[in-house]
């Protein structure tokens, strides 16, 4: 086995991976706070705005994630992450030069191509650094990158837009990532595969279809992937469209909206995802592994009525007040889901399993979530005027409820699987 990994090295690697994840979400979610100014500047529809923030970005991001993950299971993961950060940061900065919808769409696709190479290898590295009993908490810390990214993107993007315009905002958030890519390349060490579980034999990564078949044959993995995709559908749609809703319907400035949402989604969401990961680890250890998905189901049920009140509020402060808990709980699903994928998958499949999960989550959540709100907003606007956006957002609540069902079923499958441990495997069922 390679040299011992110190606690300091373990913490530093996780910290750098959090910064990488943060950078990706700064560059991804800044479209939310800049959406209305871009719409007005480039004269585009909500459907086109949904394409920019959703499906076209997600198709390239999710599809390329799988071959990159297969590469990561066979080669140096740190190098791939470093290159990916450089690419998406450069593409984000170049968005400042876009003069029409097509140019901005191509550049956002470039951001998606870059981001495709960071998440699966990051998951795999964390699984090598932290044993299963600490993995959900480690994934929760990693997952806070979503919220820190939203905080920076909304806060910086909102105020820079008010002071200097949306083009300068893209430059300000994009260029620092080039430096981050260099720091990752020079200072992060690649952990030995299987280190956290003391696996010393060399493993041979299987084919993509072998991994896909394994995941499809597992009821636990099937339900956790479907559940995560549905919950992220509502989550990504809200992150992109709630700031646009507050600017358009409630006539707030982008700086003011960015400040409120940076606090709610950034700080509150990071706290929620971390506490959620700790609670999930505690409940799983004391009450059983089925509580990993059940914790998410409970938090999602709490969010359902509050999201409806957010979208239907008649004043900006009523909307923001109703959004406090959903913003805090919106990304809680990330850590238990990531941990379950890694816990339920053999060592040699982990990067590809993470990529398959992210592919489905991102096509449905990141891709169709924002796009569907834009589409339904245009559709409902024909009869409801500007309030069409309210009803477009409200459609996402149905997907959140659907996701709760799959989290519940996943917990049932885990409980049954654990009860049957040591007995002949009963017929697989969904």
Structure overview:
With 430 residues, this protein is mostly helical. Mean pLDDT is 87; it is low at 423-430. The chain has one domain: Growth Hormone, Chain: A (Up-down Bundle). It has 19 helices and no strands. It has helices at 7-42, 46-53, 55-72, 77-94, 101-115, 119-129, 132-164, 166-174, 176-187, 208-217, 219-248, 254-287, 291-312, 316-322, 324-329, 334-343, 350-384, 388-394, 396-419. The radius of gyration is 21 Å and the shape is globular. It starts with 6 loop residues before the first helix and ends in an 11-residue tail after the last helix.
Per CATH, the class reads Mainly Alpha
Helix content: over 70%
How many individual β-strands?
A: 0
Name the beta content range: under 5%
Mean pLDDT: 87
CATH architecture: Up-down Bundle
Radius of gyration: 21 Å
Largest sheet entry: none
**Number of H- or I-type helical stretches:** 19
Number of domains: 1
Ends distance: 40 Å
CATH topology (fold) name: Growth Hormone, Chain: A
Shape: globular
- pLDDT < 50 stretches: 423-430
- Give the full name of the CATH homologous superfamily: MFS general substrate transporter like domains
Structural class: mainly alpha
Order of helices and strands: HHHHHHHHHHHHHHHHHHH
